Amino acid sequence: MLAWPLLATAELSADQVARLGADLTPLGGEKAGNAEGTIPEWDGGLIHPPSGHKTGNHYADPFSNDRILFTITSANMSDYDDKLTEGHKALLRTYSDTYKMNIYPTRRTAAAPQRIYDATRQVAATARLTADGNGVEGAVVGIPFPIPSNGLEAIWNHLLRWRGDYLKRHIGQAAPTRSGDYTLVEFRDEISLQYSQEGMTEQKLNNIILLFKQEVTSPARLAGGILLVHETLNQNKENRNAWLYNPGQRRVRRAPNVAFDNPGTASDGMRTNDQFDMYNGSPERYNWKLVGKKEIYVPYNNYSLQSPSLKYKDILKPLHINQDYPRYELHRVWIVDATLKPGSRHIYKRRTFYIDEDSWQILAVDQYDNRDQLWRVSEGFAMNYYDVPNLWTALEVHIDLQAGRYLAIGLSNEFEPYNFNVKLTETEFTPAALRRDGIR
Questions:
Q1: Which residues is 377 bridged to in the sheet?
Q2: How far apart (Å, rounded) are the C-alpha atoms in residues 279 and 276?
Q3: The pTM is what?
Q4: Tell me, what DSSP letter sits at residue 225?
Q5: Is the pLDDT of residue 267 over 90?
Q6: pLDDT digit string, tens, across residues 2-16
Q7: Can you give the residue ranges of every domain in the chain?
């Protein structure tokens, strides 16, 4: 078990902070490319829309002319063994006839506004974990630990990463059967990302880093249910607060079970609550080990997976999504191993996270059961929303190797694109607002 004194790390020294924007990117990644030239230097990321993109439309692919460098299959996977996650190896072996990984040129597109870079430089000198690692102090707006010294710091960077100020989105979720049949569940999400909003202070934050509201709009048997979450920064002061509106009862109830390994909304048991957004919530049930950094083939720049030229039926296939469409690239990722603490409960005994060095977005996760068998493999198909700019997922997929099924969440091809150009008020994220929304 990791000793707590190792977690309560000191703030970065002035010499370490000076590396941000010098040999390191402003968020802590290695600015230089690799020796082989297969990973280029970070040059500021993608901060301008490509020609042809119109605000309010789905995001045009700035790399549509890129060609596949090579394809990894079960037949040649041993040639790339050192650059594959254990999850991808298992998928290639298990679905040897259908699963493949198309490898494209690496594009280091991750970017954020200058104020996020400035804030990161500032809080890097003051940020610290609470004594038990279940909260962060001395930080707001910026990435708290751009040069992490342990696994908890790295996972908190993901939890507090830049994703924009506000978001409204209409998304689909599907859990196909082994034969490929599925019912599309539709959500309307509203998110206020309090932690990184301009002018935010620790005092104004009042320990709430994120406000989240999600309404199920289809199918009819599920429609009308609404979830409200207030996510906290120091979870020792206050745990996550959650409420559910039940349309049948027309009542709002507290929902303390919206956390950890309780099943995600309408997910057919195919993901846990803390798998949403690749990982969310309190880290208290695991010991976190920073394994190190490695070059891995990961999903990146996946503009095709939100393209209106594709229908959901084109993407959703039996056993896994259609692997003709995902784009994989070679990137450096932080590897973090999470092992369940003695006496704690979770359906996943161990989890291995692969975190993008340029954005702190989790790109892949391997999840193991209580027999230490690889059980579920998660992929975060990231892309740069260049009008924000931020790097976030276009689609999340959680594949259950034992059941031969998977869950895809975030589908937007047939809906309107994600809308980051909105302003939401805190009054829209109260239990009273939940009741009004439900009765409406």
A1: 366, 399
A2: 6
A3: 0.97
A4: -
A5: yes
A6: 333 344 555 899 999
A7: 4-439
